[in-house]
Design a protein that fits this description.
CATH class: Mainly Beta
Structural class: mainly beta
CATH topology: Maltoporin, Chain A
CATH architecture: Beta Barrel
Number of helices: 5
Distance between the termini: 58 Å
Length: 667
């Protein structure tokens, strides 16, 4: 295929340019840099959530420890404008949708490099724990950070996960931390982190965590007037996460980070609850391994250069045991590979003005044992120039994303090549010189390419699908400061409007379902976030956070249809979260509340499809103290103490009351 050959040559050229740039940087460094006394930076600069031109929400390590949360999905639920689809229990699939645009529009990055799934377009955030995480942030639209990969520009929003960087004191060149968690339904989760200093400029870290749970939790099943108590079956999970990092911080050559990652899991798929049939035998195995590197260095006073590379391997093994199959079982194996390279340049004209250029090239493949697999291959090139003006009162950011995609298949006809330009702009302005009250607004035109499943899945995929397009508009006010006895208050309020065209949906045809561009949606909403801190004394303080989302996301595909003007499935009109923490020298106490209003499980908003709202509480008690030469931490959690019965996804019941306890020791 001529276009595919052209892009392969382009990929090789980019790799050569990256190598040349890095080698040239080393030569320039010897001329442009002068060695200064070594300074250790113990705190990293982080963006202000009230100064950003587009909505940004963030929780750091101190907040994670304070609230006692241990799973990534628990942290993400605290953000406004977010819907987490949870298929139940510890091992259930969990995906993130921002402002009802769908999980395929949400990018998930891990230490600056995007995690991708070309087959389904969804990333299961349930596989990540927070034991090794430094911070989690969620941006909607385009952030003010213009020095990033082009791939981060290519999404409606981004969930960024940053793991911990080693820090050492003068006494020890190493650090060791172990943690053991156990809880209801057979949950057992040990983890270990080891950090080692390797000279003045190098360090390494190793993190291992394991999770096992039978997950046979009880639930209530209601069939008209008959209410029965059942137990979830075939929902066990056994997983292992292993991560090895190497850090190099060279004063003249820049910083380099290498990461090797392995995730391996085996779980049961309990399926939906069906009347008179609770027998499920489906099993799913996942194995994901990747190696990634990230380099950043300066060329003189004005230029900053960054480069990234990654190889990602993902293997999925699905099995179903049933007499309806010829050999008593069905087995499907899917294998994905991705080769990824990125280069970015930041040119700082002055203290107020800067420009950047990012180029990403990646190649995706999918192999499967299914009879009609097309064995697709996709080569993607993303180019993103951007500029930013920033002073004490005004910040303006603009970018333009160019996308070029070529595909090839071994069986059948491939989808056509794709070319598209996507603009984005945002600004933030401080209204008064003495008050940190800011007005902000942003616009982003973005799209998502159909996944391999959308295009080529057995008989239902369609190679003629158009891209799913989304236009995002946002306007809001932000304020931070002190108020009365409150020594810190932060407030953000954003109204937004999204329009989605050519929405990719599955529709029934004469005999089988087909994937089509049949949907249009309008999404209007309001996100409000409040944070406050009240200090009583040097050792006693109260911290509170709250978020609220009002969202009207309706189908506008065809006027007069049964679903026109109806709320999109699983989109509550009202939702929110509250957390309160009391820090003291004795026992830290945290309380979390997540509330979700009624919603509908299918596009037609009728009584039969309506799902009741729910509220889930979580209470955490925590104490840390010095023990021998290290720090010992104890924590007890009660999840859903009211034993509320609810589903996030219909017929996938969530657990009732459960308990968790953990002990950690850091040396």
């Amino acid at each position: 295929m001529p276009n595919l050959l052209f892009y392969k040559k382009r990929l090789c050229l980019c790799v050569c340019l990256l190598w040349f740039a890095y080698a040239n940087a080393q030569e320039m460094d010897s001329l442009l840099y002068r060695e200064l006394p070594r300074v250790e930076v113990v705190e990293k600069a982080r963006p202000s959530v009230t100064r950003e031109g587009a909505p940004l929400q963030r929780i750091d390590r101190s907040g994670i420890e304070r609230l006692g949360i241990r799973d990534l999905s628990e942290a993400v639920r605290r953000f406004s404008g977010v819907t987490v689809r949870d298929y139940g229990g510890i091992g259930g699939l969990k995906t993130v949708s921002i402002r009802s645009l769908g999980s395929q529009h949400t990018a998930v990055s891990y230490d600056g490099v995007t995690i991708a799934d070309a087959q389904s377009g969804q990333v299961d955030i349930g596989r990540f724990t927070l034991d090794d995480v430094e911070s989690v942030s969620l941006s909607i639209g385009q952030t003010d950070d213009i020095f990033q990969t082009a791939r981060m520009y290519a999404s409606a929003g981004a969930l960024r996960i940053r793991t911990q960087t080693p820090r050492f004191d003068d006494a020890r060149p190493f650090r060791l931390e172990g943690r053991l968690r156990a809880g209801s339904f057979g949950m057992f989760a040990p983890s270990l982190r080891y950090e080692q200093k390797l000279g003045q400029s190098f360090a390494a870290s190793l993190h291992i965590d394991r999770l096992s749970a039978e997950n046979t939790y009880p639930y209530t099943f209601t069939n008209v007037n008959v209410v029965t108590r059942e137990k979830r079956k075939n929902s066990d999970i056994h997983s292992l996460n292993t991560e090895l990092n190497l850090f190099a911080d060279l004063p003249q050559q820049g910083s380099l980070r290498l990461k090797a990652y392995l995730f391996d899991s085996h779980r049961g798929l309990p399926g939906s609850v069906i009347l008179y049939n609770d027998y499920h035998t489906e099993r799913l195995g996942n194995r994901n391994a990747f190696v990634q590197s990230r380099y950043e260095g300066r060329w003189g006073k004005h230029f900053t250069f960054g480069a990234q590379g990654k190889f990602d391997y993902s293997w999925t093994h699905y099995r179903d045991y049933h007499s309806k199959y010829v050999d008593g079982q069905q087995t499907d194996v899917y294998t994905q590979r991705e080769y990824y390279g990125s280069a970015a340049m930041l040119y700082t004209v002055s203290e107020n003005l800067s420009f950047s250029m990012a180029e990403d090239v990646f190649f995706n493949t999918l192999d499967a044992t299914t009879p009609l697999c097309a064995f697709p291959r996709r080569l993607t090139s993303l180019t993103a120039p951007a500029g930013r003006f920033k002073n004490s009162r005004l910040t303006v950011t603009a970018s333009l994303l160019g996308t070029y995609i070529a595909e090839d298949v071994q069986r059948g006809e491939p989808a056509a090549d794709r070319k598209r330009i996507s603009p984005a702009i945002s600004f933030s302005y401080r209204l008064f010189g003495e008050q940190n009250l800011r007005l902000r607004a942003s616009f982003k035109d973005i799209f998502r390419v159909p996944t391999f499943n959308d295009l080529y899945y057995d008989r239902i995929g369609s190679k003629d699908l158009d891209d799913e397009k989304a236009a995002q508009y946002n306007a809001g006010l932000t304020w931070s400061g002190s108020c009365g006895r409150l020594d810190y208050v932060s407030l953000t309020a954003d109204g937004y409007y999204n329009k989605v065209k050519d929405k990719i949906v599955a529709m029934p045809t004469m005999f089988i379902w087909k994937i089509m561009n049949m949907g249009e949606a309008e999404i209007k909403g309001l996100d409000v976030n409040v944070s406050a801190r009240l200090t009583f004394s040097a050792v006693l303080s109260l911290l509170a956070d709250g978020s609220y989302t009002w969202q009207k996301a309706v189908d506008v595909t065809k006027e007069g249809s049964k679903t026109y003007g109806h709320q999109l499935p699983y989109t509550p009109e009202h939702s929110g979260a509250v957390s309160v923490s009391l820090a003291n020298p004795w026992v830290n106490v945290s309380w979390l509340l997540t509330a979700v209003g009624e919603r509908y499980s299918l596009p037609q908003n009728i009584e039969a499809n309506r799902m009741e709202g729910y509220a889930e509480h979580q209470l955490s008690l925590q104490r840390s103290f010095r023990f021998r030469q290290g720090t010992l931490g104890l924590q007890i959690e009660v999840i859903n103490p009211g034993n509320a019965t609810y589903d996030v996804i219909r017929y996938y019941p969530m657990p009732g009351r459960s308990f968790r306890a953990s002990i950690s020791y850091s040396y």
